[in-house]
Amino acid sequence: MQKQSWSQRTNVAQALGKIDGETRAVVPPIHLATTFIRDDDNQYRSGFVYGRPDNQTVREAEAVIAMLEGAAASMVLSSGMSAAAAVFMSLAPGDHVVVSKVMYWAQRNWLLTDAKSWGIEATFVDSDNLDAVRAALIPGRTKLVWIETPANPLWTVTDIAAVAALAHGVGARLAVDSTAATPVLTRPLELGADIVMHSATKYLNGHSDVVAGALATNKQDEFWERIARFRRSVGTILGPFEAFLLIRGMRTLDLRVRAACASALDLAARFDGHGCVSTVLYPGLSTHPGHAIAAKQMSGGFGGMLSIRVKGGEAAAIKTAARVALWKRATSLGGVESLIEHRASVEGAGSPCPTDLLRLSVGAEDPADLFADLDSALRDAHRN
Ligand SMILES: *Cc1c(COP(=O)(O)O)cnc(C)c1O
């Protein structure tokens, strides 16, 4: 077993090289059974009892994610939101959390509304400002710091290692929503984070056909056991068919992410200075405020997500999105098809998202075609 010496890219391409013991198939079967036979001496030696707590296909997906993140353990759940909620709901009533102001909108809304009834008090900070993070921490009460980097939809970059040190200084854990970075570019646990969360709906699966979430931890401590118990008791495990698709999607993760990074950088450079665009938000541009930290904690690229602010305001932005032919006008991100979205329409009141912003998820298409299509839509929208 030399497996440990092979690279992350090699291991993910083969989904850890697992083959089916019975048939020698290079693609393991999907385990759909919800129940398992007890041994005649009343034991369950296979380790499997019932489908809500556990599933072999789910375990195989988790092994791949744990490898990708360099984690002690991983857990896959029914969605990114259920993964995040499992972490927050494993806190105790009265616990205080510090979270990024710029973050996935549905999670911000959940924290602002429903999380309160669980006794969770959240302070929202500009997590790219370390003084703001430090000032928000309450020694003895802050139990979790939650950041997203790069963060939706401004691609704000937070220094994972620096925030980890601050969080640990008051005895809090650091959790990182690493959906946009992916483990190809950033491995938060190696930078000091305690928990990594992914909307596996996005890059990990990569084909816009599975809703899934993932968590990874640097240690299987009592808090991780609480999270595991939450999934087991409430039944927010991922379905076996989705886990199978997720494994299949992850086999091309490295290739997809590298291609998306190269295309996104190309598009960011071309739209930077474009006559119809006031600002390009992309951590790969040296003008982006988070560029230096991104260069430090993202290796091999700056991600496949960028946003442009359209001259002429909200109306021009919406008009531009209406006139693309190749880009798909849809929410979500991280799939092989490129998506464009007027983000303020989704996020609603209270969002830090400017109304002239279009969020771009760069897929696997030819970047020259992606540029030509959006360039023509921008010009068209500005003409009439
Ligand atoms: C989509 C997304 C989520 C939520 O994940 P779901 O799989 O839709 O529940 C959380 N964080 C980020 C950054 C996302 O893009």
What does this entry look like structurally?
By secondary structure, this protein is an alpha/beta fold. The chain folds into 2 domains: 3-250, 3-Layer(aba) Sandwich (Aspartate Aminotransferase, domain 2); 253-383, Aspartate Aminotransferase, domain 1 (Alpha-Beta Complex), CATH 3.90.1150.10. It has helices spanning 8-13, 56-69, 80-88, 105-112, 130-136, 160-169, 182-185, 222-234, 240-250, 253-271, 291-297, 313-322, 343-347, 367-383; strands at 73-77, 96-100, 121-125, 142-148, 173-177, 195-199, 213-217, 277-281, 305-310, 328-329, 339-342, 357-361. The protein has a 7-stranded mixed β-sheet, with helices on both faces. It has a 5-stranded mixed β-sheet with strand order 8-9-12-11-10. Strand 5 (173-177), helix 7 (182-185) and strand 6 form a beta-alpha-beta unit. Helix 2 runs parallel beside helix 9 (240-250), helix 10 (253-271) packs parallel to helix 14 and helix 12 packs across helix 14 (367-383). The termini are far apart. The site of pyridoxal-5'-phosphate has 16 residues, from helix 3.
Describe how the helices and strands are arranged.
Layout: H1 8-13, H2 56-69, E1 73-77, H3 80-88, E2 96-100, H4 105-112, E3 121-125, H5 130-136, E4 142-148, H6 160-169, E5 173-177, H7 182-185, E6 195-199, E7 213-217, H8 222-234, H9 240-250, H10 253-271, E8 277-281, H11 291-297, E9 305-310, H12 313-322, E10 328-329, E11 339-342, H13 343-347, E12 357-361, H14 367-383
Parallel strand pairs: 2-3, 2-4, 4-5, 5-6, 10-11
Antiparallel strand pairs: 1-7, 6-7, 8-9, 9-12, 11-12
This protein binds pyridoxal-5'-phosphate.
